[in-house]
Design a protein that fits this description.
Elements: H1 6-18, H2 20-28, E1 41-44, E2 49-52, E3 57-58, H3 60-64, H4 69-72, E4 76-81, E5 90-93, H5 94-110, E6 118-122, H6 127-139, E7 142-145, H7 152-161, E8 166-170, E9 173-175, E10 178-180, H8 182-190, E11 198-202, E12 216-218, H9 219-225, E13 235-236, E14 240-246, E15 254-259, H10 260-275, E16 282-285, H11 292-304, E17 308-312, H12 323-331, E18 335-338, H13 340-347, H14 352-355, E19 364-368, H15 374-384, E20 391-394, E21 428-431, E22 437-438, E23 443-449, E24 459-460, H16 464-471, E25 479-487, E26 493-498, E27 502-505, E28 508-511, H17 512-520, E29 525-535, E30 539-548, H18 555-569, E31 578-581, H19 595-602, H20 619-626
Parallel strand pairs: 4-17, 6-7, 6-8, 7-14, 8-11, 11-12, 16-17, 16-18, 18-19, 19-20, 30-31
Antiparallel strand pairs: 1-2, 3-13, 4-5, 9-10, 14-15, 15-24, 21-22, 21-23, 23-25, 25-26, 27-28, 29-30
Helix pairs in contact: 1-2, 5-6, 7-8, 10-11, 13-15
The structure holds 5'-O-[(S)-butoxy(hydroxy)phosphoryl]adenosine.
């Protein structure tokens, strides 16, 4: 099943869609199971219901750790690079990682956690974050990692939604020049949570923190008491592995549920196949473990494949715009996987920041998170890859768990801005607005998937109905991605962007409704409409149209209050770039906001606003245009 030529890709792809059960069933055999699965797939997209390898029994950490100990025990599993280049990197071997994970798994157990319990992880990008994730998986506890840039309110909402029993956090975190008091933010959030019984706190910044007696424990104290022998909990393939929240088109984030067996097989296979990982190579994905990219392609995929995975605590601009390239040179990184927004930011910096570092170790480059524009693609190709590294533009989602459409490095012919071809086992379909599949070449439609793949989310935690409505109702019988997509003459796919109310800002998925309801909390605000508009570096930025209760004396004061409110409610990533105070919003007679018009005004494309005659009050459009920023 290994793919080493484009012809072979076509052959494997063909086999994978003709007999998906055989394809995935064969792939599952390379893993360590306590009971090998015989029952490969049950599914029904109308319910929806999907179960892979259902009678299989396993523990994913035995696949990520135990099975490598004999021949890779002394190989580095994780290279950790600190925020500050002056702080020594850490190299953790597979054996050391195994010991630490088992030890921490015992800490979790001793503090009352059992299989199925939910654990919230709110930590900086330090090796202990990966250890925490794996320790949960070791004992069958369900981890819910919340990105450490989220606010106390966002943290509390996520803890409450899945009723987490324990929180793992740190005193603080370093991000560039800033030190963030993570524990203080967590404490603020915990005031609104009743399900948390224990909080384990890692020392990272050595800042002063409040420790709540009877609830809060120091990580290092607990580890000292723990034994490093911990048998893995035997899990059913369809038992929950983790929950990860993503934004949707209502205010409430969706807890996407991923299960053990299918997720493991899928992320391991895609990691090896897309990047063509070779034993001994150093692989670096710059994402945060707080996002799906980090789950699948920093932790589970690479470790299950026995790779050396680099974890970076810092930001691309600290101490200067050459930091990524310095890290590549320092650790002789072979495979580098990042986001278009980072590329665009670094592209703006002087080339000397790139050229003073030796990038000759690089073999493969990757991107993920949003469409990459041609200019950024070429800059990446020429200046980072020096024209000799294939770029894999990987399209996928929190919901898909693993890479779905992507070139295979060195195998698939590249076409800038195209994610190119589906992975084996992935069956994309383009739909027109009426739900008719588009069969011909050179057409654009809505991207759906017509057959299950093993790492797909199984449900939204606690809300299967919403899962059905969001993903399986627009086109009955198909999974709907929310993305627009074009397919060219060669059958290559190019993702054109979201067609729903989700905005991708700097690669982060944000729901318009979530931001709107945060702004609406301000007592001076009556109603808000939020749209995305193109932004040079962020890809998209947020434009908020705000109706206020009364005449405002000082717009700038209210603007900064709104920004602070969004920061507090969601996090700094969701702050609008522009806030315009408007007398009204363009609404249809049924009360629906015509975002299409607001999008055009925000993008300064006002020559052709389309038909506005169906609006309740068309004159409001003139007024909004006159005040546009
Ligand atoms: C949305 C999913 C997948 C991990 C990071 C984001 C957009 C993702 C690409 C790409 C064009 C892309 C889509 C998708 N997206 N990768 N290579 N080309 N668009 O995960 O937060 O769940 O967001 O990101 O719009 O639906 P996510």
């Amino acid at each position: 099943m290994e793919i080493s030529s484009f012809d072979q890709y076509h052959q494997v792809y063909k086999n994978s869609v003709e007999d998906p059960e055989k394809f995935w069933g064969d792939l599952s055999k390379e893993f360590k199971w306590h009971k090998e699965p015989e029952n490969i797939l049950q599914w029904d997209f109308n319910k929806p219901e999907v179960r892979w390898f259902e009678d299989g029994q396993l523990n994913i950490t035995e696949n990520c750790l135990d099975r490598h100990l004999d021949d890779k025990g002394d190989q580095t599993a994780i290279i950790w690079e600190a925020n500050d280049p002056g702080e020594a990197p850490r190299h953790i071997t597979y054996r050391e990682l195994f010991d630490e994970v088992c030890r921490f798994a015992n800490v979790l157990k001793r503090n009352g956690l059992e299989k199925g319990d939910r654990v919230c992880i709110y930590m900086p990008m330090v090796p202990e974050l990966a250890i925490a994730v794996l320790a949960c998986a070791r004992i069958g506890a369900v981890h819910s990692v919340v990105f450490a840039g989220f606010s106390s309110t966002a943290l509390a909402d996520r803890i409450n939604d899945s009723q987490c029993k324990m929180l793992l956090t740190s005193d603080g975190s370093f991000r560039g020049k800033k030190t963030i008091d993570l524990k203080a933010i967590a404490d603020e959030g915990l005031k609104k949570c009743t399900s948390i019984q224990k909080v384990v706190v890692l020392k990272r910044t050595n800042g002063a923190v409040h420790m709540e007696p009877g609830r809060d424990l120091w990580w290092h104290d607990e580890m000292e008491k723990a034994d490093s022998q911990c048998d893995a909990e035997i899990m059913g393939a369809e038992d929950l592995l983790f929950i990860l929240y993503t934004s949707g088109s209502t205010g409430k984030p969706k807890g996407m549920v991923h299960t053990c067996g299918g997720y493991m097989v899928n992320v391991t296979y895609t990691f090896k196949t897309v990047f063509q990982y070779q034993p001994g190579e150093v692989y670096w994905c710059t994402a945060d473990i707080g996002w799906i990219t980090g789950h699948s392609y920093i932790v589970y995929g690479p470790l299950s494949a026995g790779a050396t995975t680099l974890m970076f605590e810092g930001v691309p601009s600290y101490p200067d715009m050459g930091r990524f390239w310095e890290v590549v040179a320092r650790h002789k990184v072979n495979i580098f996987y990042t986001a278009p927004t980072a590329i665009r930011a670094l592209e703006k910096a002087d080339l000397s920041f790139v050229n003073k570092h030796d990038l000759s170790s690089l073999r493969v480059l990757g991107t993920v998170g949003e469409p990459i524009n041609a200019e950024a693609w070429h800059w990446y190709d020429q200046n980072i890859g020096k024209g000799r590294c294939p770029i894999v533009d990987t399209w996928w989602q929190t919901e898909t768990g693993g890479i779905m459409i992507s070139p295979l490095a060195g195998i698939t012919p590249l076409k800038p801005t195209y994610a190119t071809l589906p992975m084996p086992g992935v069956q994309p379909v383009l739909m027109d607005e009426n739900g008719q599949p588009l069969e011909k070449a050179n057409q654009e439609g809505r991207l759906c998937i017509e057959f299950p793949w093993p790492s797909m989310a199984r449900t939204i935690y606690g809300n299967h109905q919403r899962f059905k409505e969001t993903y399986f109702s627009a086109y009955p019988g198909y999974y709907f991605t929310g993305d627009g997509c074009r397919r060219d003459n060669d059958g290559f796919y190019r993702i054109t962007g979201r067609v729903d109310d989700v905005i991708i800002v700097s690669g982060h998925n944000l729901g318009t409704a979530e931001i709107e309801s945060a702004i609406d909390e301000h007592q001076k605000v009556v109603e808000t409409a939020v749209v995305g508009f193109p932004h040079d570096i962020k890809g998209n930025a947020i434009y908020a149209y705000v109706i206020t209760r009364d005449q405002i004396d000082d717009e700038d004061v209210l603007r900064s209050e709104i920004l602070a409110l969004v920061s507090e409610t969601i996090g700094p990533i969701a702050k609008p770039e522009k806030i315009q105070f408007v007398p009204g919003l363009p609404k249809t007679r049924s009360g629906k906001i015509m975002r299409r018009i607001l999008r055009k005004i925000a993008s300064k494309e006002t020559e052709n606003l389309g038909d506005i005659s169906t609006l309740l009050d068309p004159s409001v459009v003139e007024e909004i245009m006159a005040g546009a920023i």
